[in-house]
Amino acid sequence: MSQIPPIGLPWLVPRIAIVELFGVLGTTIRSPDYDRILTALRDDARVKAVVVDIDSPGGSAAAAEQIHRGIAKIAARKPTIAFIRGSGLSGGYLAGCAANKVVAIPTAMVGSIGVISIRPVVTELMQRLGVKVFVTKAGAFKDMFQPFREPTEEEQKKLQTLMDEYYAWFVDAVARTRHLEPKKVRSIATGEMFTASKAKELGLVDELGDLDTAIDMATELGKVPRRLAYVRPRRAILERLLGRAAGTLVQEVTAEVERRLLTRIEFRA
Fold it and tell me: Is residue 254 part of a domain?
């Protein structure tokens, strides 16, 4: 993580911290990195307001909840503004709605409130390759997420129950942070994407504007001079060795392989 400089003459002045959430939650955006960043910003008395700059289609449900909680803890102590520049979808929106206010470019895509579980099945491929799988297990459903066979009807019912639980939590989180009736949130939580203009009508966005709009809002609410500090995660060692572009490409390819082979539960568009 790019640490805020230690106290020195320039840093005696209060600042507005800007945190960027660009990419897929859980892969490009690693929740442990952001846990440290958000905790540091929450506890640093020199940071008087925070702007979370978002462009994310969502991703891992667990990562989305972790970041949502981290932003909510900051918002409980100091003005926190979410700015949606391109997409704030599913888990990306969940992260942003934890802020005190949400600002978005009018043409940004917002919403996609819902849950999806993706399970690849490679039975035919394994048959073509002559590969067999023998399973020894204790627990009737221990292998229910494995890709070497199709799920049974009972397993699908259990998975749907799990999805409904995640969905109910997501709806409740949006209703609570946006001060909306759960019934209203459920009516728009169809997985549908909205333009930010429409999302404002629905109560998912507070203001339409750009990053400057969000910074102005943070300046006013935090009663702090317009002095900005960008706070980013420390680059992974792979990026430092290969360069940012190459390192990011390798990470994305690796993540895509995992996404295709492993069952996952996501807040993702």
Answer: yes
